[in-house]
Amino acid sequence: MKPGAILEEAGRIAERIGPLPLGQMFARGRRGQGIHRRRRTGSGSEFWQFRNLEPGEPASRIDWRRSARSDDMFVREREQEDPARLVLDLDGTGSMRFSSDPSLPTKVSRGAVILTALGLAARAADEMVVAGGTPLRRAEDLPMLLDRSEGAPPAAGTDSLLVMAGDFLDADWTIRLSEARRGGAAVLLLHVVDPAEAAFPFSGHVRFEPAEAEPVRELGRAEEVADAYHAAWRRHLDMVAAAAADEHAALVSHTTDRPADEAVAELAALIGDPEAQWAA
């Protein structure tokens, strides 16, 4: 799926869910704690200054009253607390390039659409968005930055929400999860699954081509290994759920034969839930 198509689909989803602020989520962790403010320009509560609109910034940041008196577009800067960051991390390993049917997206394409939609919605709320270890400057760059996120450090720390999307078949993801939590980040996990991975709908002679550095496998009667496969798949799901629970991360599962909107809506609801405990 090309970056332009990802951006177009994600943009439609982001428009439907509306701006996605992160402040309320981090306020949960601050209840009962003293907050030490660091003054900086941003979208906080006290007026500070005007500045010119920068290329790639959303029109929602324009102060139209001030801009009406000039040929330039101005943004009204305010003081705020240290900014929250939405950090997006997409697994780009070989297994994520899998699709069991031409009518279905690959797992990596679907993950890119969902993360891009979240990033656009957060950007519409004037939140800082980071992908591939790089702060987002222009909305149209987001799919490209996600494509480069594999292997890049998540850059998630205190007052950061890390959203990791992947199939979690590569053991390295647990290391990234643990490092982010030790750094103080809240973490949302998006488990992206192809329907054939969950159902194993194979019978007769089947040739399995490896997605990564593994040998080709041929089965004369694939249905004979279905029970063993399903047991292994349940162990994988249990491992993912246990890793999320151990690190106090929220877990959302998404199958690529379902609309991307569903996963985005579920993730957005978790971010906006004032009573959620997972980000503590």
Automatic annotation (TrEMBL):
Organism of this sequence: Pacificimonas flava
Every DUF58 domain range: 50-124, 160-236
Name of the featured protein: DUF58 domain-containing protein
InterPro entries in the record: DUF58 (IPR002881)
Domain of life: Bacteria
